[in-house]
Amino acid sequence: MRDARTRTIPNACCGAICLLGLALCCLRALTGALPALPAPVSCATVAVATLLLGVAAEGAYRAVSGRVGLGLGDVKYMAAWACALGWWVVPALAAACLGGALYACIRRERTFAMAPWLTLAFACAFVVALLR
Fold first, then answer.
1. Whole-prediction pTM value?
2. pLDDT tens, 81-109?
3. HSE on the CB side for 12, CA within 13 Å?
4. Whole-angstrom Cα distance, residue 24 to residue 17?
5. DSSP tag of 35
6. 99: Cβ–Cβ under 8 A, 6 or more apart, which residues?
7. Using an 8 Å Cβ cutoff, are 50 and 75 in contact?
8. Which residues, 6+ apart, have CB-to-CB distance to 50 below 8 Å?
9. What are 50-73's pLDDT values in tens digits?
């Protein structure tokens, strides 16, 4: 993944995930398929809340520390996945943070690229939600 090398997430990637999530929501609303995933309104609400809370948290961190923390690309990426997963992004985000932090500690690094860990966690959350 590009983020692991450059620490950037292309907007096209976030847009594609968002559009696929919205298409999945429409499929659920029209056919009743995939009932284990949250309702489309719930997914949209969580996506907006994720975006707003993420931007606010990153802005506050930057104001206090003077450095970039999570990064706004990661915030957009989480909001895009929330379009498909709804509230499932919360435990997936916690797992991604824990996994990335442990990996960084093992490698004795101070920072790590978040998107690869988010991708793994969100994909696992999607599979778990479907198997439920």
1. 0.86
2. 999 899 999 999 999 999 999 999 999 99
3. 1
4. 10
5. T
6. 117, 120, 121
7. yes
8. 75, 78, 79, 82, 89
9. 999 999 999 999 999 988 888 889
